[in-house]
Design goal:
about 20% helix; 11 strands; eight-stranded mixed beta sheet; three-stranded antiparallel beta sheet; alpha+beta; about 210 residues; 5 helices
């Protein structure tokens, strides 16, 4: 991995991410009785550095209020994960991106609360400080730099009494972020930034995120 990938948000960075994601075979999961949802992993600039957008959910929401999240939500009838990610971006943080901003998919993640979430990687490249949250859904918008995501000490793997699976989290400057959001951030770090072939479906969520 070249240092410039961590520090610059330019065409070189975009092409490197496109190549890494294109070389990864994402795994889909059967929907069954699950509810289909999508999240957007948006690459933007923060002080000129490559970063991923992160949101804090509004305290007004009935489910997962105040938790860290990526922009996203349930798919409408007949809607693709890509279309849902683009729609939710505009609804939640007033970011309108064209379809050619889509870089690709990462692995589906199944949550304890009954969702199959598909992460869609998108390129914005614009400075994040121009974005404004929809206060009904999002309390605040934040960024996590590529350099912070790539820090070897960021991923945390913990054994907990309630689960026979390892709980994944990401220790970041904003907070300690847990799966499912941590699963998407970690897999993007591994695949998009580091060019690895890392799976995350086997990682669990902490109990507070089960409902």
């Amino acid at each position: 991995m070249q240092t410039s990938l961590l520090d610059n948000c330019d065409d070189h960075t975009r092409l490197a991410i496109i190549q890494n994601v294109a070389g990864f075979h994402s795994e889909s999961q059967p929907l069954g009785e699950l509810r289909a949802a999508a999240v957007a992993i948006v690459i933007a600039q923060s002080c000129g550095k490559s970063s991923v957008l992160l949101t804090r959910r509004s305290g007004k929401l009935r489910a997962h209020s105040g938790q860290w999240a990526l922009p996203g939500g349930r798919l409408d009838n007949g809607e693709s994960a890509e279309d849902a990610a683009l729609r939710e971006l505009e609804e939640e943080i007033n970011l309108s991106l064209p379809r050619n901003a889509i870089i690709g998919r990462l692995d589906d993640y199944i949550t304890r609360s009954g969702y199959r979430i598909t992460p869609i990687v998108l390129w914005s490249g614009e400075e994040s400080d121009q974005l404004r949250p929809n206060p009904d859904e999002v309390a605040s918008i934040h960024t996590v730099s590529f350099r912070e995501l790539a820090n070897p000490s960021a991923p945390q793997f913990d054994e907990v009494p309630d689960s026979d699976r390892t709980v994944l989290s990401m220790r970041l400057s904003v907070d300690q972020i847990y799966a499912p959001t941590a699963a998407f951030l970690y897999q993007f770090r591994e695949v998009g930034i580091l060019g690895k072939n890392t799976r995350v479906l086997h990682y669990d969520q902490p109990r507070f995120a089960w409902k």
